[in-house]
Design brief:
By secondary structure, the chain is an alpha/beta fold. The chain has 21 helices and 14 strands. The protein has helices spanning 26-35, 39-48, 63-71, 84-96, 110-115, 117-129, 144-148, 178-199, 224-233, 251-256, 269-277, 289-303, 308-328, 344-353, 372-380, 391-401, 410-418, 426-430, 437-452, 455-465, 485-507, and strands at 76-81, 104-105, 137-142, 159-160, 163-169, 214-218, 239-244, 260-262, 282-283, 334-339, 357-363, 384-386, 405-408, 423-425. The radius of gyration is 25 Å and the shape is globular. Bound molecules: iron/sulfur cluster.
């Protein structure tokens, strides 16, 4: 299919930092993108996903969040536009996490980027993919270099043969975490679906519409959690609605058609904007532990004009079971916790109510109004909460608090193991469990107490291995590593000399 070539404001400056987006060159890429007409998008991201008080946390490529949301949806094709190395990493990660779907890719070179041919290639690819028998939607994601170069996805057709086309920019220099990148795509889809619903009738959910008013759940969670939430809501005459990000396009309409939205994960700022535009109230925090469940049921009931008697009925049904689960499965030990999923403060509440001596919670996500109640609750119990936590802050926390268990991201767990501190991965072992209601109250104790009980094994391993493989001697060696202090002295001397020379040149 041939199309007229649309002149775009391509920006060759973007190519100079190809592949450096994650590590450096952020300012140059940002400036290049702005010069190429992306200021409005980047300003919106800066407002939705504030960076302060620290800079962007260390975490995986943010675009993974958007890619994962697209790949998990039925009848949705997801296409990446970016440097081959970025696409390789993102494709690898998505298959590592069991995507079982193809990732589309429109390759480019410096010529197709600066001449605007890349945009034409993307448009051709979208036209070729737009088969309504197979797809409801096609998602196309601009990574760092195409965003910095100004590839204008916003002028793609909004729909081809009845297949919706969603083009988004998800650059590492504009979207801080992969969690927030999920919101970029979920928000774009909700906006599209909201406009469709405003324009006329839309498809009903696959299993029909709920007879009761529903609560839309915002944030990916353990599959049992929405079921448990539904049970909690039932005495108030309410039902659990779809979970956003949704698994199918038509669920977006049902998600918008709710009585209220539960922002279980607090970072979905763009999605919240769409729900508010649809006139839906949004409730923060979540029904975790006793206090969290009580406050959440009250807030949901109030926002849906449920009578106090029904709210109390819901509380009376669930709270004794939560209390019993917490008392029956206590957690003993000092813990530090960090992660980048967005559920860190909720897990922290559960740990404290289970009896853990929790000292620190670090989350890569920003501070928003939807976690304000959790922040207040944790702070009142002496827990330090760090939003936009950096790896250095997470590691400094366990140096300071000397916990019996460090729960964290891969590098945090690695650093804890080196110090013989028992540790657990947040993403794989903690966030992949039920958190809500009685099931959540009892789910963490077994894995956490078992890990804390491993301390003596960690000590045995440390005394067995001693200093083997630490620092300079890490890696694979043919012979026994020999320390060379003289090389270190020589390198230090050269670096000092170079620094002095640079200083002298600056003063000329
Ligand atoms: S797209 Fe992701 S991997 Fe590629 S440069 Fe940007 S942040 Fe890094």
């Amino acid at each position: 299919m041939s199309h007229p070539v649309i002149p775009i404001v391509a920006n060759p400056e973007a190519l100079k930092t190809d592949g450096l987006g994650c590590h450096s060159g952020k300012e140059q890429l940002d400036a290049a993108a702005r010069a190429a007409g992306k200021s409005e998008t980047l300003d919106q991201y800066a407002q939705d996903y504030p960076k302060g008080p620290h800079d962007q946390p260390q975490s995986m490529c943010p675009a993974f969040g958007s890619l994962r949301v697209g790949l998990r949806m039925r009848r949705t094709a997801t296409i990446l536009s970016g440097s081959a190395c970025c696409v390789y990493g993102l494709t690898f990660t998505s298959h590592f996490y069991g995507a079982r779907r193809s990732v589309g890719y429109v390759p480019f070179d410096s010529e197709s980027l600066v001449t605007g041919k890349l945009f034409e290639d993307i448009r051709d690819a979208v036209h070729k993919e737009a088969n309504p028998d197979l797809y409801d939607a096609i998602v196309i994601i601009n990574l760092c270099v195409p965003t910095a170069s100004g590839v204008p996805l916003q002028i793609l057709p909004k729909e081809i043969n009845g297949v919706r086309v969603i083009g988004i920019d998800v650059p590492g220099f504009g979207v801080p975490t992969h969690a927030e990148a999920k919101d970029v795509l979920a928000g774009a889809m909700l906006k599209y679906a909201r406009n469709e619903a405003a324009a006329g009738p839309v498809a009903a959910p696959r299993n029909g519409r709920s007879e009761k008013p529903t609560i839309t759940l915002l944030g990916e969670m353990f599959p049992a959690d929405p079921v448990i939430l539904g049970m909690m809501l039932e005495p108030m005459g309410l039902a659990a609605g779809p979970t956003v990000p949704t698994r199918e396009w038509r669920e977006l309409y049902a998600a918008l058609d709710c009585a209220a939205v539960a922002a279980i994960h607090p970072f979905y700022t763009a999605s919240v904007r769409e729900f508010e535009a649809a006139g839906r109230p949004v409730i923060g925090s979540a029904p975790v532990g006793h206090d969290g469940t009580e406050a959440w049921l009250q807030a949901i009931g109030d926002s849906c004009n449920v009578g106090q008697a029904q709210i109390d009925a819901a509380k009376n049904r669930i709270l004794p079971a939560v209390r019993a689960a917490l008392a029956g499965k206590p957690i003993k030990g000092r813990i530090t916790l960090s992660g980048y999923e967005g559920s860190e403060l909720l897990v922290a509440r559960l740990l404290v109510e289970s009896g853990a001596d929790l000292r620190y919670v670090g989350t890569a996500c920003p501070k928003t109004i939807h976690s304000a109640a959790d922040l207040e609750w944790l702070t009142a119990r002496g827990v330090h909460v760090q939003y936009r936590a950096s790896l250095e802050q997470d590691i400094a926390a366990f140096h300071e608090f000397k916990p019996d268990l460090a729960i964290g991201t891969t590098p945090v767990v690695q650093a804890a193991k080196e110090l013989s501190i028992p540790s657990l991965y947040f993403t794989n072992l903690i966030s992949a469990r039920p958190l809500m209601g009685p099931a959540g109250a009892g789910s963490l104790a077994a894995v956490i107490n078992a890990a804390i009980g491993n301390k003596s094994r960690m000590n045995d391993m440390q005394s067995f291995f001693g200093g083997t493989g630490i620092g300079d001697s890490a890696g694979v060696w043919e012979g026994k590593p020999v320390d060379r202090p003289e090389f270190r002295t020589e390198t230090r001397r050269r670096l000092d000399k170079a620094a002095k020379k640079r200083k002298a040149e600056e003063m000329i």
